[in-house]
Write a structure and sequence with these properties.
Oligomer: single chain
Order of helices and strands: HHEEEEHHHHEE
Shape: globular
Bound molecules: zinc ion
Largest sheet: 2 strands, antiparallel
Helix content: 55-70%
Distance between the termini: 21 Å
Number of helices: 6
Radius of gyration: 26 Å
Length: 298
């Protein structure tokens, strides 16, 4: 059976998140333009609509570029801040799209496509423009409801819609702010360290740190009861010591799960793609069988 390969974002079937973006983004943008045209005097329109429409055009361009291009194709500008992720010999495997993508940063569920080396600049431009657009919409919406209220056309419906817009634009501004801050943080760290990593590599790194932390915690739990036994052997007869003696037994029970998770991760890194211990999130595999490194994002 031939597996379905998703070549680009604008390819059926669309995901629920993708359809939500296709409905919410135009409604939030065109709704604000309509409110400004209906409520504000002409003298204010250029000041308000200029930044919003300019940012919206850039955001739409970024979205269209990411959604129409196939990130599997080599190309794009190699970003020095993502040096490690975009190494030429490390294409990664996307399990959603069933394809290997050069410089894969992550699979974006909102566009239902991979963001790789070819589309990362457009994706970052989209995040920046989205933040600017909804930041401007929130700011202008708040001013229309406060300091510019005297200039607004009359009507309770207009004010109710402005409040509704303020809530939606505020939420979208926060979402774009979180996205932009995260990617800017990765780029800045990459710039300073010279070992730039993208979203997927960051997830792998976090997973490895968590595994190391769990291992260290398990070691400490094993050491503590040994030390207690060697210093106060008679205390084991008390109920408190008996309860303490349960701790190593519990940690010993948890140890196989930790070791299994570590083994699974090690196997994934060595050659075969396996699910992470949590069953979701991150999977890593450097598949050398086909002469290329592969990572999976689920
Ligand atoms: Zn993908």
């Amino acid at each position: 059976m031939v597996k379905f390969v998703r070549s680009r974002g604008l390819q059926r079937p669309f995901s629920r998140e993708q359809l939500a973006v296709m409905v919410i983004y135009p409604c939030a943008t065109l709704g604000f333009v309509a409110l400004a045209l209906c409520g504000l005097p002409r003298a204010r329109l250029a000041e308000v609509l200029g930044p919003v429409c300019g940012s919206a055009l850039v955001a739409c361009g970024g979205w269209a570029t990411c959604s129409c291009l196939d990130p599997r194709v080599e190309g794009g500008v190699r970003c020095p801040c993502l040096k490690k992720t975009q190494q030429a010999n490390r294409p990664k495997w996307c399990a959603v799209c069933n394809k290997s993508v050069p410089g894969l940063d992550h699979h974006c569920v909102w566009m239902n496509t991979c963001v790789g080396q070819r589309t990362y600049p457009a994706f970052y431009a989209l995040a920046t423009a989205g933040l600017a657009q909804f930041g401007a919409q929130s700011s202008f919406g708040a001013r229309m409801l406060s300091s510019w209220e005297g200039e607004l056309a009359s009507g309770a419906a207009l004010r109710a819609l402005l409040w509704l817009h303020a809530a939606l634009a505020g939420l979208l501004a926060l979402a774009f702010c979180a996205l932009w801050c995260f990617h800017t943080h990765l780029l800045l760290v990459g710039w300073y360290t010279g070992e730039g990593i993208g979203t997927f590599d960051w997830l792998i790194m976090r997973h490895e740190r968590e595994m190391a932390r769990q291992e260290q915690q398990a070691r400490q739990e094993r050491r503590q009861p040994c030390a207690a036994r060697s210093t106060t052997p008679q205390a084991a007869a008390t109920p408190a010591a008996a309860a303490q003696a349960q701790v190593p037994a519990q940690s010993a029970a948890a140890q196989p799960a930790i070791e299994l998770a570590q083994l699974e991760f090690a196997v994934a890194v060595e050659g075969t793609a396996e699910r992470s211990p949590a069953g979701k999130g991150v999977v890593a595999a450097e598949g050398r069988g086909r002469g290329e490194d592969q990572d999976q994002v689920l």
